[in-house]
Amino acid sequence: MGTAFGDGAKMSDIISKIPSSMLVNDTADAAQVNKALLNQVQGSNKIIDAVNTVNAAVTAVGSGIVELGTNSNGTYVKWGNGLMKVFVKSSSITVNAPVGSLYYGSVGIISYPATFVSVIGITSNAIRATGSNLIWGSVIGYGLTSCGNFIALSDGNGSTAYITAEITGMWK
After folding, report:
1. Phi first, then psi: what are they for 74, rounded to 5°?
2. Are 58 and 93 contained in the same domain?
3. Are residues 110 and 152 in the same domain?
4. Cα(first)–Cα(last) distance of the chain, in Å?
5. Sign of the alpha-carbon dihedral angle for 163, 164, 170, 172
6. Domain co-membership, 37 together with 109
7. Strands (E), the chain
8. In this predicted model, what pLDDT tens digit does every residue of 56-90 receive, in sequence order?
9. Alpha-carbon distance 111 to 72, whole Å?
10. Helix (H) or strand (E) holding 56
11. Are 120 and 112 a contacting pair, CB within 8 Å?
């Protein structure tokens, strides 16, 4: 990978735009900055923009991104130290099956855009697409190549939602 990003920006240009409070001195701090930045974005275009910013910060401490890709299954980022993050989004889930005083809906397994050799953890979020009810979401189960079931819960009947998941693990 070269030092220029998709829009032609050079690493030094990107680093100069990062507030000094975000520059880090060790890998543990870089991981915290990475997580904070990636948790603030939604959608693959914003993820890619944020990852480019994170790459500049992480590269400053010697563990830069070696591969960044998107395919029909989602987006992935591979770092030189073996760490990988994968971002996936479920298809639309209709939340209309009663369970106690709540309603739920689910979709099945989703394949990752890249394969892990080990998985460290998974974080999921629900995004309400329609309706005005509260939505909670979760991913039940994960492996080296896929995760699922994606489940959405709501306090009302008829909303639709998407579940997004960020999976962290090792690619080598």
Report:
1. 145, -155
2. no
3. yes
4. 18
5. positive
6. no
7. 65-71, 74-79, 83-89, 93-95, 97-99, 102-107, 110-111, 118-130, 135-139, 146-147, 150-154, 159-170
8. 655 555 568 899 999 999 999 999 889 999 999 99
9. 10
10. helix 44-59
11. no
The residue type found at 58 is V
Alpha-carbon gap, residue 55 to 52, rounded angstroms = 5
Residue at 21: amino acid letter: S
Whole-number Å distance between alpha carbons of 111 and 130:
25
Q: Quick one: pLDDT at residue 64?
A: 82
Residues 6+ apart with CB under 8 A from 164: 42, 87, 88, 89, 90, 124, 125, 127
Residue type present at position 129: A
88: which strand partners? 165
72, 37 Cβ separation under 8 angstroms: no
The residue count for the chain: 172
CA separation for the pair 152, 126 (Å, rounded) = 7
Q: Are residues 113 and 74 in contact, defined by beta-carbon separation less than 8 angstroms?
A: yes
Residue 44 maps to a domain: yes
Residue 81 lies in a domain: no
Residues of the chain with pLDDT below 70 are 1-51, 53-63
Give the separation between CA 68 and CA 52, rounded to whole angstroms: 9
